Amino acid sequence: MSELVIVESPAKAKTIQKYLGTGFEVVASMGHVRDLPKSKLSVDIEHNFEPTYIEMKGKEDVIKDLKSRAKKSSRVWLATDPDREGEAISWHLAQLLGLDTEQNNRVEFNEITKTGVQAGMSHPHKIDLDLVNAQQARRILDRIVGYQLSPFLWRKIRRGLSAGRVQSVAVRLVVDRENEIRAFQPREYWSIDAKLTAKSSRKVFSAHLAEVDGKKAELASGADADKILKSLDGADFIVKSVKKRVTSR
Fold first, then answer.
1. The whole model's pTM is what?
2. For 9-63, what is each residue's pLDDT tens digit?
3. Are residues 30 and 127 in the same domain?
4. Model confidence pLDDT, tens digit, residues 57-83
């Protein structure tokens, strides 16, 4: 009996099959195999936001083939993409095929090369349920916001409007920023800068007026600035301390 390796992409399946050779059968799930049904919310808000999944329409033949091959195989390896969505697909495949999520049946290929495939197969691990839960949280939020907020917009504003998990928050940020801009009251302010040089040097450095008599320099008019400039006329300046730092640009 051969070992079954399930990936997402048919193109990857052919390449990985070539690297693994005999004793392995590599097939593709063609992406996700289960999802929330489109006909209803499918998230139990009253009971810990429990989702209800169904086999995706149009994937019946793929799922049937995967189940058939899994029964004939000595072992099943879940080799979906090494990311959040890939981890969730592996978990859904485990549910469909009756695999134990506590077993080390998850492998990851960080590169589709002979070395990368061999390295992935030699380091199997459990399905990362934290990643799976992260993907489920994203999917559930998409469904709750889309199915409950969009109809509200249709009733209150106009049909056809949509609301999304990211879109709605982004719009809120834009609106808040626009309100800040509209509420802004412009006021006049002045600043004083100087070009200074030491008596023993020709190098010029810049200085900015920060305080006046121990208080923050707040110059509200040209008259205030002129008054400070008069008091500075002919004055000597002392550098009390120097700080050096390295910066990257």
1. 0.70
2. 999 999 999 999 999 999 999 999 999 999 999 999 999 999 999 999 999 999 9
3. yes
4. 999 999 999 999 999 999 999 999 999
Residue 110 lies in a domain: yes
Backbone torsions φ then ψ of 25, nearest 5 degrees: -125, 115
Long-range residue pairs from 27-30, CB within 8 A, at least 24 positions apart, any chain: 27/65, 27/66, 27/69, 29/62, 29/66, 29/80, 29/89, 29/93, 30/59, 30/62
> Do 236 and 207 touch, CB atoms closer than 8 A?
no
Residue 9 and residue 88 in one domain:
yes
- Give tens-digit pLDDT for 140-187: 999 999 898 888 999 999 998 888 889 889 999 999 999 999 999 999
184 falls within a domain: no
Both 205 and 84 in one domain: the answer is: no
Residue 154 forms part of a structural domain: no
Q: Is residue 58 part of a domain?
A: yes
- 204 neighbors 194 (Cβ within 8 angstroms): no
Identify the domain containing residue 198 by its residue range.
193-232
Q: Which long-range contacts (CB under 8 A, 24 or more apart) does 234-237 make?
A: 237/194, 237/196, 237/207
129 and 213 in a common domain: no
Provide the domain count of the chain: 2
Those residues whose C-beta lies under 8 Å from the C-beta of residue 103, and which sit 6 or more positions away, are 126
CA–chain centroid gap for 124, Å, is 26
How far is the C-alpha of 92 from the C-alpha of 87, rounded, in Å?
Answer: 9
